[in-house]
Each structure stands twice: as structure tokens, then as C-alpha cells.
Amino acid sequence: MAQKPSIPKGTRDFSPLEMMRRTYMFDTIRRVFRTYGYAPLETPAMENLSTLTGKYGEEGDKLLFKILNSGDFTRGFTPDDAKVIAAGTETGGAPLNAMAARICEKGLRYDLTVPFARYVVQHQAEITFPFRRYQVQPVWRADRPQKGRYREFYQCDVDVIGTRSLLCEFELVKIVERVFGDLGINVTLKLNNRKILYGIAETIGHADKMTDITVAIDKLDKIGIGNVEAELASKGIGQEAIAGLRPILELSGTNTEKLARMKEVIASSETGMLGIAEMEELFSYIAAAGSTLDIELDLSLARGLNYYTGAIFEVKAKDHAIGSICGGGRYDDLTGIFGMPGMSGVGISFGADRIYDVMLALNLFPEEAGIATRILFINFGGPEQLASLRLLQQVRDAGIPSEIYPEPAKMKKQMEYANRRGIPFVVIVGEDELASRHATVKEMHSGEQQTVPFDKLSEYMQH
Amino acid sequence: MAQKPSIPKGTRDFSPLEMMRRTYMFDTIRRVFRTYGYAPLETPAMENLSTLTGKYGEEGDKLLFKILNSGDFTRGFTPDDAKVIAAGTETGGAPLNAMAARICEKGLRYDLTVPFARYVVQHQAEITFPFRRYQVQPVWRADRPQKGRYREFYQCDVDVIGTRSLLCEFELVKIVERVFGDLGINVTLKLNNRKILYGIAETIGHADKMTDITVAIDKLDKIGIGNVEAELASKGIGQEAIAGLRPILELSGTNTEKLARMKEVIASSETGMLGIAEMEELFSYIAAAGSTLDIELDLSLARGLNYYTGAIFEVKAKDHAIGSICGGGRYDDLTGIFGMPGMSGVGISFGADRIYDVMLALNLFPEEAGIATRILFINFGGPEQLASLRLLQQVRDAGIPSEIYPEPAKMKKQMEYANRRGIPFVVIVGEDELASRHATVKEMHSGEQQTVPFDKLSEYMQH
């Protein structure tokens, strides 16, 4: 009957130590979101597949986890359906997808953005716009698992929808500053604007190929300018246009200098100039408020997702190479696909698992975040145990995480337990302590001992 | 392209107000767990179906949500397999289950107990025993949705494994007292012991039918003594034995009186007497510590799950009828099924969704728990907006949740927004305020206004 237990590949258990550290990280992020006036939202793990399918491109559709219908999932099947299934391996592709759609109505959410859009449309009558929400929940993708890439991972999204005000972009910049400031991670915030990218495409005579151009430019960091140019050529963009792109990608100088130079280059593009104006306004808010962030206007930043229409953001850790740890942007029509056009919004998503990895690598978790129990009471049984239980209640009532070893085991075993659990204080109430009504408090790290009157214990431990 | 968006039946969106209240509830529960020295654990939403299947009875197996294998899920299928699928509706049952098992390797977790047992066995080398953990995560069951019963709901479990000490049962009693005390819910804690139930079965000559007897007794509250007796008869238990059971079920008096009476009735059952001794020890701890809880020894309490072997718990709200809101017990062999026998543990599970319903019905959520943003800054645009942004940064830096209306809209519209969002304070920085460097703070509920110097605003708002 015994099975060797394991978990599905790409998923993880989080041990108490990992959970305490993750909790510290999530609490920090959530606290900043709340301080900035965003309210929490949660959506179900399962969405109807009709909500999810077609929102993440063909590749994304393949990565959706589908849930088998309950009960008789083959209800209504005909012999023809059976043939499709029997032929599965040979035919593959479309027939198999159609079959999956017949036996699965639901899927696990792939991100928090599409469920948010679905929520806004479904609940539009109850929502007060502009709607400011954050959402911290796991998402699931049937990606090939590899180092740093999981099939279940957390996203922390913060969005405001229902206003075109650039104060929202500014606010997100401040949230990035505060979250990474509070977590102790040095970061660079890269900014760009999709309208400027469109202006570039328009200027080089390929406004129709805006998507191909941004997808290619997005890879600049990873594959280099040569390969980006090759990809552009393969999409039917002429050599002259590609040559026109090069000086723009290689632009340098301060953010203000870059904007000024771009203004000349794409002067003929109305949309492009609108993008420039948006960035000038955003930078003016940042300049007025001041910022400790390293903020860089990066015209090669494109981001893959096609629903962005204005400012785009990306955050990288300076002291640990791991790719982007946070990103997002302005979208003008996220809810259109669900029948509610013209709702402009802007949001960013913090990649919790990568942020965790950065913090671990740079040793940024405070020691406190690894401590579950602060006090272990040694158990001597009998009347000493009863006295310890009373003191235990006293410190617990004062909110100090504490416990008693559940059995009067050998002292050595109990002390070992305290050490292995990383419990910083041990309280001893033996025969002598019971007689004098003074507890012995041992600080495990230094080995130092103090004698504390019973009725002063919680007060003493709070210092 | 527009779809009318909806979510799968039995699942829920949690709006900001619901989320803030749920967060208040979960934070309270988690804080108590931590204060009592339990450490957090999380396991993946998906488990291998081999981990879940066969752990919840035949009914439970049917309620597992199964996840379709990624890629070609019909890989290796033969024409015979296709026949099984084509015949689905007619044959149903076993062939269909076998088919589901071939196309689904993973399922969503059904509770937190089996994943906990799986975790303990899988990570036994790293765990310090006794292992004290809590776990707050959603679970999924393909139950028929109805009022108060969802397909996705949260459980809050707290367990200690690796010791038989009854101090653990005592600690869980105190946790129940503290959680419901902190939440403001008046409850009755019902206690019983599986060993006593076994003793009863043994005494009436049906030790072999212990399971049938406990399952039937468990329904006493719901179906009444007559129907319980009919069910017992249908299981082959003789009239004499059933008659022998009746005085036990109708036992009354104080907990001490009940224990004393039972001691006489089941004196011949060694296991039964062990159960009595356990309850006496547990009640002695409770008596020594004192408790504000209403604690009742209820010999008709059985609880359905068959893995309990000692004390069992159940909590009911006194002022709102909704069934059990918390329950659990001692299990001596939870991990045996995964190849690790003899690990005794005890735990309880708080039913978050029912507790939420009780709190809502009894109006127990503090007003504070419904407030996201405390201050809205009215936006007048221009230099007033810049001054407001500076003040906004001041109060945010002080940790006060606050925001500025993103556009210089009409005053009436901005005030309406504050009202609809339930924002308690509005700060006005108009032309006069800018000149005098004093902000006008309006308390929305009373309509009262105060004038506060710019540099004292966060200090003023913290009172």
C-alpha cells in the first residue's frame, strides 16, 4: 500500500523557513500596495476555458492547464469522436484541441490580468471607477520546468483601470521605488512608451509591422542587434528601414537628451509625438517628487504582450543577474475582448519567485523573518510543567510566539529541538525555579542566562 | 468577439470589501497559530492523483478535480481505448475512471491533511519532530454547489505530528478559545474520544462494527435518534445492542459526571478506559488553566473521517446556526499510507468560509476592516496638484493608505468617489490652502472640517 510520495514536476512545497521568508516578502509588497490606496481582489483558481483561450497567443493556449469535466466527461460522445481520440497521436493538433475542449470546460488561471479584465466587465455595475486593485495569487503554466521556471508560481499585480491620467504611471514608479527600497534590492527601472515605438515604425515606413518590430526589439538584450536585424528582415522589413532603426536603438545620453533627440527623429508621427509628450509629463512628476530609483528611458524596451498601448515598465536587479523581476504598462483596451471597450488602465506585476531568489542570493532576509517560535519552555513534567504552562499562557497572551516541549524528555533532547528549530530563547522552570518563583531564561546564541521573576516574564521577553 | 464573462459554478470572486474582511479573519487566525508556536507550510495546488486517490473514500474520489495531461493526452491510445470512450455514457463507472486516470496524472488538492501527510513523509529527513505546522490554502471539491457549499474554499489547518502528548490536545483547545475569542464569536467546543466510542462498540458486542456505529452516531444531530437506530439495524446490529447504546447517547450532566458514568459502563473495555483516562487528563489541564470556552463532552460526537483514533473536536457557533465551523482530532497513523507508520499527531481545521458567514451575519467585522484608503486628496490640477502630491507622499511615507483623484474632475464627482469607496477623510489643497500652507481636512462621516499645517498633516492623520 505504501507509495513513494512526490509532487508534480515544476511544483514546490514551501517549508516553514521558506514560508516565513516568503510571507515577509509578500507582506512587504502588500503593505506598500495598501499604503498607495490599492484594495485587494481575489479571483478563482479555475476560470472557464472560454475566458482564457485566445488571450495569450497560440503558445499560451498550449500552456493552459485544463480541468477534466466532472462525472461522465464523455457524455454525448459518438463513435466519430472516439476515432479522433484513437487517432490522437497521428493527427494531433486541431482535432486533439477540439477534443480537449469537449472534455474540459475549465482551466487554471494563466496570469492575473485576464481574470482582472473578466472581473471588471462582470462586476462593472458594482465597481467605483477609477478602480484600484492589487492581487497576489498563484498562476499555473504547463511550461517545461527548468531552473527558476515553475508550473505554479505567484504574481503580485497592481492596476488602476478607468482613467488615462499619467499620475497613475507616476504612482507605479513610486510603488516600484518603495517595494524594492523596503526589500533592500537595488534596481534599475527601465521605461519606454509603445506610442514612441509606433512612431518609430511609422517613421521608417512600416506602421503595419509595429508588432513584428516590437517583438524583435524586445529581444535586443538577449540576442543582440545583429539577430534582431535578421529577424526584422525575415518579417519583410527592408534594409533601408532596418538601417533607419539602428541609430534609434543605439541612442545614448540622459533621459532628457534621449527624449529631445527622439522628438526630432519621429517629428512626423503624431502618435509618436503623443508618446514623447506622455513621457515628458511622467518624467516631470518624477523630477518634482525626486526619486532614489535609477530610472532609464530605454527605447529598446518593448515587452512581449501586445495589449500595451502607452508607457511600459521593466525592473531589473542591479546586483544579481536573473532577468526582469517586475514589469507592466498602460493598456487602452484590456476589457474590449469581454465586450467593454475603451477602459484605459495601467498596471505592473511583481515576479515573486524571482524576487525571492534575488533576496536569497543577496542575503536580504532579516534574521527575524526566519524565526517562528521565540521561546521554548523546557518540560520537566509534574508541578514544574503546570507552572510552565501558566507562564506559557502569560507570554502567549502578550503575543510572543512560544511553546512547551510536549513531553518531559531528556534535557539534551529538548535543547537540541530548540537548536534545530532556531528558537532563540529557552525558559527553564525546574525545582529551584518553582521554589523561588523565578524562571531561568537562556539566550541560545550567546548561552547567557538570566533569572526573571514569574510575573515579569512577558515584560522581560518583550525587550 | 465579445463574450459575456462568467466564472465556473461553485467558485467566487472576492471583491475588495470581501477581501479586506477575509484578510482580517485570516490574519487573526494566522496570528494565533504563530503565537502558539506553529510555523507556516504551503503545498502545491496540484498533487499527483496517486497521492489523492483512495484517501477520501469512493465518494471523495469522485469529487477530485483532475487535470488533463499537457500535450498529446491520448498518447499511446489504441482503438480499444477509443471504444471505451465512445461507449462512455452506457458503460460509465470503472472503464471511465480508468480512462480518466490515463489522461490525467494530476488533481487539485481536496484537503490540507493528505498533502500534509505526504509532505511529512517526503521531507522526513529535514523535519524536526514534533513538527508543528499551520497551513491556510484553498481546496477544491467537485461537489454539487449549493448555499454555503463551494467548489473552491479555504481551510486553515493547524497540526502537530510526532508526539502522543495530550498537551497538544490542550493547546488546540486554547487555540480554539483564542481564535474565536479574538474574532468575537461565541462558540461551544464539543469533545469526544474515538477510544471511548470503540469501548462502547466493544461493550455492546460489536467491536467489529466500530465504523458503522460511529458513522451512524455522527448523524445524531441531523437525523435524530430514531433514524440513527434504524441505520444501525440496517448494518446488522441487533436490537439488544442498539438498546444498550441508547442510555449512553442520552447521557447528561457535567463533563465530570459523564466521564464518571461512562467509566462504569465501559469498565470491561481496555481501549475504552484508555479513552476515559485521556479525557480526564485533558480536562485536568483545562481545569488548571481555566477557560472562557463552553466545553462539552458529547458522546454522540463521532466525526466522519476514519483516521481519528483519540480525542475529537467540533466547534459550533452559539448565535448563528450553520453547522460545524471547526473540527479535528488525534490520528495515530496518518502517514502510514505513504510508508511511514506510527507517527501520531493531532490537528484541527477552521472552516474559513463558514466562519466568514457567521461573522457577517452577526456583524462582527470591525468597521476598520472595510476601509482600504483612509485619505483622498482632491485634485485641482496645476500647482495645487503638485502641492497635494507632496503631501500625499508625506502621509504615504507615514504608512497611511491614501491616494489622489487622478484627474482634476469636478469637486462633486471626486467627493462622490470618496463616498462610494468609503474613504473616511478628504484633504483639500485649493488656492487658499496653497497660499496659507494649511490643508483642509474633511471628515466625511460627520462633515466636520479642520485646518492643518502642511508639515503636520501625517501627524494629525495618525491620531
Automatic annotation (TrEMBL), chains A, B:
Instruction: Output the InterPro entries linked to this UniProt entry.
Output: aa-tRNA-synth_II, aa-tRNA-synth_II/BPL/LPL, Anticodon-bd, Anticodon-bd_dom_sf, His-tRNA-ligase, HisRS-like_core, HisRS/HisZ, HisRS_anticodon
Give the matching CDD domains: HisRS-like_core, HisRS_anticodon
What keywords is this UniProt entry annotated with?
Aminoacyl-tRNA synthetase, ATP-binding, Cytoplasm, Ligase, Nucleotide-binding, Protein biosynthesis
- EC number(s) stated in the UniProt entry for this protein: 6.1.1.21
Principal localization reads cytoplasm
Recorded hits in Pfam families, A to Z, give: HGTP_anticodon, tRNA-synt_His
* Top-level taxon: Bacteria
Catalytic activities: tRNA(His) + L-histidine + ATP = L-histidyl-tRNA(His) + AMP + diphosphate + H(+)
Location(s) in or outside the cell: Cytoplasm
Q: Where is the Aminoacyl-transfer RNA synthetases class-II family profile domain?
A: 1-401
Q: Which HAMAP family match?
A: His_tRNA_synth
Q: How does it assemble?
A: Homodimer.
In the record, the note on similarity to other proteins reads:
Belongs to the class-II aminoacyl-tRNA synthetase family.
**Name this protein carries in UniProt:** Histidine--tRNA ligase
Supply the source organism's classification: Bacteria, Pseudomonadati, Bacteroidota, Bacteroidia, Bacteroidales
The protein's gene is named hisS
